[in-house]
Design a protein that fits this description.
With 585 residues, the chain is mainly β. It has a 19-stranded parallel beta sheet that branches. A 10-stranded parallel beta sheet has the order 4-22-27-30-33-37-41-44-47-49. Helix 2 links the parallel strand 1 (24-31) and strand 2. The chain is globular, with a radius of gyration of 26 Å.
């Protein structure tokens, strides 16, 4: 055999070997709840790294996949699908060994991952229990009497605090125009028929220095209501619970028909279940979650540092009033400064491209639901359910980086930071914002080309859809956003100064069209009973078109708007076909 013929044979054999080694287009791994989801993700990563498949699907059998830390997906996990009808990813601990003590049932809370467990939620047989509070009906909340900023003291009726004078970890939840604040009580001083309450730091300084939102005092005609929580002395209604962190004992008063020896009682141990973590240079690409449930998270900052939000649950890190005010060309003078933080979400995505959620369920959550935090592109959330969520349902985009004063326009030099081309569509939101009443169902901040389409939103505490940020007319990174054919009703269950659809900031090319907003709730305790709207373009809103939106009447607010807004054919005269087409189909 000549050397030339041998070379040809070797080359041919090489081609044959290459053909055999070509990866299959798609490979599926199937796992059960007693398997590790993190191990399956690593196995899928290795399959792709070794060239055995171009794409891998992890199929989850029905059941609960409990995590001891968040599942993290990195750029090496690009090209992954995780699917499983009936599968639930959970950050919860199931409680057992209940014992009866009079009307209460008691159990010891186990450690989680080697540490004592702390939490702010409890679910019994899939239903959220109530953290013990002084009122079962919020219409019966007491009202504040005065605010003393010099001593950082809130004065309230004496009788409202009688039960908690010796409670070590009681909290006061204060209603403030468009937000609620969670304030940990440090001391109570009785003077006559009033009680002066002081709070722990850092929330005390924040609460008494920041000007907006403010608590309403009696001279306004609508003094702010409040309720008290997290004291065993308040545990007096079926469905309420209290956790004594010192003894690590959980007390619960069952609802009718609940048998605690056989009930499924779950507390959350994690704040986040899934983190998708890329970089601007190496984003995570092409990951899909299909028909997966995400359940049982908490968010512990209110227990550790209080919670004083500015708006939409974005909490203040530092804030104070300005004297003299700042002159801002092209804008109103600015009378306050604020820097913000962001609550945890069950699923968080940073620098991801085409990170999709199809037919997923976000429920029983103590923070927010799904959060595209920064640098995300073309991700789609469709046919999802968001319910029983403490804070925001769907969140997207920046709400000012922590180093940027929140009234300044966000103009990053690297536009890859901006969430672009995202979609939330054909999804339903209800009973979200059920702890932080100032949160919203769909919360989009500094975003570009977001598509919010055919969603149904109802029974939420405040606004339905919030789009934009910054309280500023200057051009930033927002543009070409779309809010189309959504249905919003029974919103504002607890807070006013709100709307079914609300905007902030300069957003050239943004179109809000063919939506239906109706049936606002009527809580008696809001700060101004007339200050609610169907559509609301707030400070700095500019270059936005609002067209063909059906509302029962033209109750709209244009507050400190910039130029270029167009209002066309909005109100009860809008075509019936548009009205019937709105919402999830």
């Amino acid at each position: 055999m000549t050397r030339r013929l041998l070379l040809i044979i070797c080359i041919c054999c090489g081609y044959a070997l290459q053909a055999v080694a070509q990866p299959t287009p798609h490979l599926t791994l199937s796992i059960t709840p007693d398997s590790s989801l993190a191990d399956a993700v690593r196995q899928a990563r290795e399959i792709r790294r070794l060239g055995q498949a171009q794409r891998v699907t992890i199929h989850l059998a029905a059941g609960t996949y409990r995590l001891y830390e968040p599942l993290r997906l990195r750029p090496e996990d690009s090209g992954l699908t995780i699917e499983g009808a009936g599968a639930v990813v959970s950050g919860g601990i199931r409680l057992a060994n209940w014992k009866r003590e009079g009307r209460l049932w008691v159990t010891d809370v186990p450690d989680f991952n080697g540490r004592p467990t702390d939490f702010r939620q409890l679910w019994v047989n899939g239903r959220k229990a109530i953290r013990a509070r002084d009122v079962s009906d919020f219409e019966q909340m007491a009202r504040i009497r005065r605010v003393d900023k010099s001593t950082q003291t809130l004065w309230v009726p004496k009788q409202s605090v009688q039960k908690i004078l010796k409670a070590p970890y009681a909290e006061l939840v204060l209603h403030e125009m468009w937000c609620t604040a969670n304030l940990r009580i440090k001391s109570i001083t009785i003077q006559g028929d009033s009680a002066g309450i002081r709070f722990h730091q850092p929330e005390s300084k924040l609460q008494f220095e920041h000007p907006w939102p403010s608590p309403m005092t009696p001279n306004t005609g609508h003094p702010s209501p409040f309720y008290l929580t997290n004291a065993k002395e308040l545990l007096d209604e079926p469905g309420e619970w209290y956790y004594d962190i010192r003894s690590r004992r959980l007390y619960y008063m069952p609802r009718s028909g609940e048998e605690m020896q056989t009930a499924e009682a779950i507390i959350p141990a994690l704040e986040t279940l899934v983190e998708v973590i890329g970089t601007a240079e190496r984003p995570v690409r092409d990951v899909t979650f299909s028909h997966v449930g995400f359940e049982h998270t908490t968010w512990m900052r209110p227990s550790q540092k209080g919670h004083v939000p500015l708006q939409a649950g974005m909490y203040l890190i530092e804030a104070y009033k300005l004297r003299p005010q700042i002159d801002r060309p092209n804008n109103h003078k600015l009378d306050n400064q604020g820097w913000l933080g962001r609550a945890a979400a069950a699923v968080e995505v940073s620098y991801g491209e085409q990170i999709d959620f199809k037919g997923c369920r976000f429920q029983h959550l103590g923070g927010s639901g799904l959060d595209y935090v920064t640098g995300c592109r073309n991700g789609i959330a469709s046919d999802c359910l968001f319910t029983d969520i403490a804070m925001n349902g769907y969140v997207c985009g920046s709400f000012s980086p922590s180093a940027l004063e929140t009234h300044l326009p966000y103009q990053p030099s690297d536009f890859r930071e901006v969430c672009q081309g995202q979609s939330i569509m054909q999804s339903e939101f209800y009973d979200v914002t059920n702890e932080d009443w100032g949160c919203v169902a769909i919360c989009a901040g500094y975003v570009s080309k977001i598509n919010i389409e055919h969603n149904t939103i109802h029974d939420v505490s405040y606004t339905g859809i919030s789009l934009g940020w910054g309280w500023n007319r200057d051009l930033g990174c927002m543009r070409d956003n779309r809010v189309y054919a959504n249905l919003v009703y029974q919103y504002a269950q607890h807070m006013y100064d709100c709307a079914g659809i609300y905007t902030l900031g300069n957003q050239p090319g943004t179109i809000i069209s063919e939506n239906v907003v109706r049936d606002i709730a009527k809580p008696s305790y809001v700060h101004d009973p007339q200050h609610w709207f169907y559509l609301y373009t707030d400070e700095g809103s500019s270059n936005i078109t609002l067209r063909d939106n059906w509302t029962p009447e033209e109750k709209y607010l244009r507050n400190a708007n910039g130029p270029g807004n167009t209002w066309e054919n909005n109100g009860p005269q809008v075509n019936e076909q548009i009205r019937s087409n709105a919402g999830k189909k």
